[in-house]
Protein: DNA-3-methyladenine glycosylase II
Amino acid sequence: MSDDSRYEAVCSRDARFDGEFFFGVATTGIYCRPSCPATTPRRKNVRFFPTSAAAQGAGFRACRRCRPDAAPGSADWNARADAVGRAMRMIGDGVVDREGVSGLASRLGYSARQVQRQLTAELGAGPVALARAQRAHTARILLQTTALRASEIAFAAGFSSVRQFNDTLREIYAATPTELRAARPEKSSLSGPAGAPGGVLGTNGGTNGGTAGVPLRLAYRGPYDTTRVFDYLARRALTGLEEMVGMPGARTYRRTLRLPHACAIVEVDERPGDGWLECRLRLTELRDLTTAIQRIRRLFDLDADPYAVAERLGADAALAPLVAARPGLRSPGSADPHELALRAVLGQQVSVAAGRVLGDGLIAAYGKPLERPDGGLTHLFPRAEDLAGAPLSELGMPESRRATLRTLAAALADGTVRLDAGADRDRTEKELLGLRGIGPWTSGYIRMRALSDPDVLLESDVAVRAGARGAGAHLEDSEGWRPWRSYAMHHLWNAPRPRPA
Structure:
């Protein structure tokens, strides 16, 4: 995409490109998202940046009208399997905050200098700057949605000192923490935090400072088929771990979630806002906020580019009617990759309903109970290390599948198989296929959901083949669907079935 094309997108305030690039205005020193409602600047005063961190590094501060730091992420990072794409996924998951640049480089298999050079060359910012931009966004959310002291927020957002926290906010937002808190956006704001200040989940299962949790608006681009996504999650919800409450069209998905420092309770509403989903996070440890947001975004596939998907899949004559019938169909990922992988084994060669029954039994027998149940939420999913040596006799399935579940759990626990946000997808799939009892369907399903790969097609799946027959699609021609075959598969799963003769 040329700079002239980018400027055309800015002139038309095209929200399709929010998160794909940012632009800075030299005369004001402010950077914005393409859809910013402010007066369009002259072309000679505009500079373009691939990331918000690059704009901040060039001395621009975030616009208070369009809040570019709250834009959806670029779909490129999920589609790309190279080091830059993997690094961006891991930075989003908080790896730099937890392990530093050396930890990120080690996971990528490069030196810290190589990672710095690659990211700076392509994105205009290195890993520290990218993580810093993310920390500033987290801090703004906490300032505007909680009543915590600024010093508590500084360390919860990942800053090493209060001074660093204050300096960063002044540089990025041209405001002090007090001023940012006073500028909390109204409920009608197009992006960013929403709702009244909430609280965090206490160690006893209650909340500190309120019961609503941290309220968020999770932005997405283009159309979003909430009905299909919530239907998909409802059919697979495990008792005690997840629940879907409310009537269709106004449902709320709730679940417990393990995070790097502690646990959380997540709530996401089905009824969309103007380009966002309402979410509430009740965290035991506020340091987990950034990671929790990214994992929920992956679960709901909020960084997808439905325009690019529709353009590619709509070019296929058989898929075009399906794409037109369900605009914004998403490919849900996973909030916990280990959990998803283990659940995939439970779903081998059985229906979704039968797999759910097995999952319910696994939660009841091996899940960690919450100290205080919250509605229908009573347990955390069991850890891989807890299942590696478990008898699993409570589960009504063949011993061979119990052995596969234990084998996979052991591989996840000891790191033989890695499912972190930046895992090398090809290598991970080979490692999975090397485990006894894991075949192409299971490894492909894990790759699609646990690793958020947008280009997976389970050609052996019975429902996919049935959908293809009904649509008149030929799976052998699926090369033309790349790199969005996961979305093609969801369209085939949702395709009308041919009536029996």
